[in-house]
Design brief:
- Strands 1, 4, 6, 7, 9, 14, 15, 16 and 18 form a 9-stranded antiparallel β-sheet that branches.
- It contains 1 helix and 18 strands.
- The N and C termini lie far apart (36 Å).
- The longest helix is centred in the last third of the chain and has 10 residues.
- It is 4% helix and 49% strand.
Length: 237
Amino acid sequence: MKKLVILAGIILVFRLGVTPAYAGTFSDNFYDGNTDGWWLGYSLANPVNNGNWRVESGELVQDTGFDGVIALLDGAIFSDQFVETDVKLNGPSGGGGVILWFNDNNNWTHVIIYPAAGYVEASAHVNGLSDDFRYPFTSLANDTWYDLRVVANSTTGDLDIYLDGNYLFTRTAPTPNRSGQSGVINGNAGGFFDNFSLTFPAPLTDKDQCKKDGWKSFTNPLFKNQGRCVSFVEQNK
């Protein structure tokens, strides 16, 4: 089931503070058996190769042998975001996770788990060049469900990465491209996705969003206190 919900005044607590005070959420558990709201894509390694995306038994499946096959939320652009999905990779060589800040085939960022190689990878691709950081995690297993969560700060480029609710590491993505489409990515043997959700800050349009420490949640612009936040709203009505 697809849901797009605007949450007014709900505070979400992450590892490094409170963000955002006002937010919207897109979620999909695929129980409806379709991929409405998604653009089902191709292999980033070779775009002529399409993925074999489909919903089976309430799960999003992709099982071609191509590398870096993507599925994106259709027509939506995100900067700061909290993106999460359950992911299970096929053996013996499946890898996959989330893709964010996708601009084109040469510019995107991803966070994947790769059981066959024993690591979690955070990678930024800029103009066709990739910068990969690999966090060793040798206990990962194929054919096993994991909850992968990424909190992305578009101002700093920081990606806070969690697995099964446990904080793993923070990677500062070396990319100037910090807004774009988001979704899931997998490759090699393919895998499964379920319970996808993406939470994003709503625009700052009302001075009430600055109150009750709401001013602390905004990073673009960044405020020193509530008064600065209120002044910004009043000057930009």
